[in-house]
Amino acid sequence: MDQNSVSQAVAEIRGRIDRAGGAHVALVAVTKTFGSDAWRFARVAGCDAVGENYAQEVVAKAAEVAVTDRLPVHFIGQLQTNKVKMLADFIDVWQSVDRVSVITEIAKRSKKPLIEAFIQVNLTDEPDKGGCDPSEVGSLLEVARDSGVAITGLMTVGPTSGEPTQTRLAFRKLRTMANDFGLQQCSMGMTGDLEIAVEEGSTMVRIGSAIFGNRPSPTR
Fold first, then answer.
1. pLDDT category, 37, cuts 50, 70, 90?
2. End-to-end CA distance of the chain
3. Pairing of strands 73-75, 93-97
4. What are the distances in angstroms from CA 57 to CA 16, 31, 32?
């Protein structure tokens, strides 16, 4: 992985997004398990944000990359309440909020003037995936509003099977839910299903391996 390969890969991903009709879709480079160079490469390549899954990695990379050299950092992994304090100074958007305890802990720990978060919704009925039940979104929005956390969108992960019809149905449901709740942002779509996501109204895709290649083992 080097700057040239990352920039070329980002250009290819942008082309895929454009061809699917998503000229204004944001690109989050998923940098989990890669070193701090991935943050730098993603910024130079023109990505809109970086996405991280593991708290220790966020802290380590933030120590190596100056604030002025960083893209916005999104937390996209399953969020443990006891890791929020560690992350609070570094996360710009919390994409994986799925329960009341996480909302209240973020509100307690974050010192940012705008605490921005997405509610992650599980639309595939896969127990190993994070996300709340669709029926819980309304109540979580109320808790967030009362806690001072700005929910600006919804997030989901497509079915593990990658079956196109099931994937499209899940993404369509998320876009409909976002519209029903008056939320503009819809974070859905990864390397294998970004075209379907864009066609179904995604405003933000999360791409990792197609930009950076095979992942090393994670440091949690």
1. very high
2. 22
3. parallel
4. 29, 10, 7
Q: What would the pLDDT profile of 109-162 be if each residue is shown by its tens digit?
A: 998 999 999 999 999 988 888 899 999 999 999 999 999 999 999 999 999 888
Q: Does residue 190 sit in helix, strand or coil?
A: coil
CATH of domain 3-211: 3.20.20.10
Instruction: Provide the mean pLDDT of the chain.
Output: 94
Distances (CA, A) of 143 to 34, 90, 96, 107: 35, 23, 15, 10
Q: How many CB atoms lie within 10 A of CB 14?
A: 17
CB 154 within 8 A of CB 185: yes
Q: What phi and psi, each to the nearest 5 degrees, are found at residue 9?
A: -65, -40
- The alpha carbon dihedral of 193, 12, 40, 67 has a sign of negative
Q: What are the boundaries of each domain within the chain?
A: 3-211
Separation between Cα atoms, residue 94 and residue 88, nearest integer Å: 10
Alpha helices in the chain (DSSP H): 3-19, 37-45, 55-64, 84-87, 100-109, 137-147, 164-180, 194-199, 209-212
User: What H or E segment, with its residue span, contains residue 204?
Assistant: strand 204-207
Residues 43, 45: Cα–Cα separation, whole Å: 5
Token pair of 142, please? 């109320």
- Tokens of residue 158, six digits: 């497509």
